[in-house]
Amino acid sequence: MTDIFGFPLPVVLGQLMLGLVNGSFYALLSLGLAVIFGLLGVVNFAHGAFYMLGAYAAWLGMSYFEINYWVALVMSPLVVGALGVVVERSALRHLYQIDPLYGLLLTFGLALIAEGLLREMFGSSGQSYPVPELLRGATNLGFMIIPIYRLWVIVASVLVCFTTWFVLERTSLGATLRAATENPKIVQSFGINVPVIVTLTYGAGVGLAALAGVLSAPVIQITPLMGSSLVTVVFAVVVIGGMGSILGAIVSGLMLGVIEGFTKVIYPEASNIVVFVIMAIVLFFRPAGLFGKE
């Protein structure tokens, strides 16, 4: 049997596959951050909180309204996205013309408020969400047996990520969005309501975070702190890919998940910091990120 660094090949491939699952979450969350920063210039530190709210929205829908997973997969991003719209119109809108630090502080404060409220309402213990019946069981890939649901997470995340990239980079709608944020006065002169576009863009970015939350609900315990423990890694992924780069967020998220999985095989103690080490190296040689513009 072939070994890699002294480890059996099936073990390495298994960890790489699990890393790809984590990378799918990184990519989807990083995508929402990149959309909001790239189009609006807002460093959305509440992104982890919206991810957490997406998972809680699915759990509450199941527990109190008997809403199944497939409905929650659509409804939770819409509900949390609508909450994002309220946040943008009531608070963030007033901060666009001043130092971006104020937007970061505002969203950081909103994240703390959301975590505190959820902890007060449901406690710190985790809530479980069942895997939908259609996706239960496991399949044999030859080198490992993997739950079908984890394969679904990879497929769904990659599909959503590259669909979003295509819409923003290859369609007239995406061109309008970019133009509205780069030169709003000219776009406004064509009769396009730029403030509405900005609001919907923020809502869409927040909805992507909520979608990641719903996808993660059957995999991990749902807790008020699930977002804060992940958001720092996601910010590192966005920096590595290039702040505001949609393609950079997707590719870096998937790539870093795989690298993290490989690190767990050869040197497990470093798996929690490998993303930040890579971020430091990238910033040293290419401050704009792998896909960012200098």
Instruction: Output mean pLDDT.
Output: 87
Helix content: over 70%
Based on DSSP secondary structure assignment, what is the total number of beta strands? 4
Distance between the termini: 46 Å
Gyration radius over CA: 19 Å
The number of helical segments is: 11
Structural class: mainly alpha
Strand order of the largest sheet: 1-2
What characteristics describe this protein?
294 residues; mainly alpha; two-stranded antiparallel sheet; 4 strands; 70% helix; 3% strand; globular
Brief overview, please?
With 294 residues, the protein is mainly alpha-helical. It has helices spanning 9-40, 47-65, 69-90, 100-122, 148-170, 172-182, 184-189, 194-216, 228-241, 246-266, 274-285, and strands at residues 3-4, 7-8, 138-140, 145-147. It has a two-stranded antiparallel ribbon with strand order 1-2.
Q: How do the strands and helices of this protein lay out in sequence?
A:
Blueprint: E1 3-4, E2 7-8, H1 9-40, H2 47-65, H3 69-90, H4 100-122, E3 138-140, E4 145-147, H5 148-170, H6 172-182, H7 184-189, H8 194-216, H9 228-241, H10 246-266, H11 274-285
Antiparallel strand pairs: 1-2, 3-4
Helix pairs in contact: 1-5, 1-8, 1-9, 1-10, 2-3, 2-4, 2-8, 3-8, 5-6, 9-10, 9-11
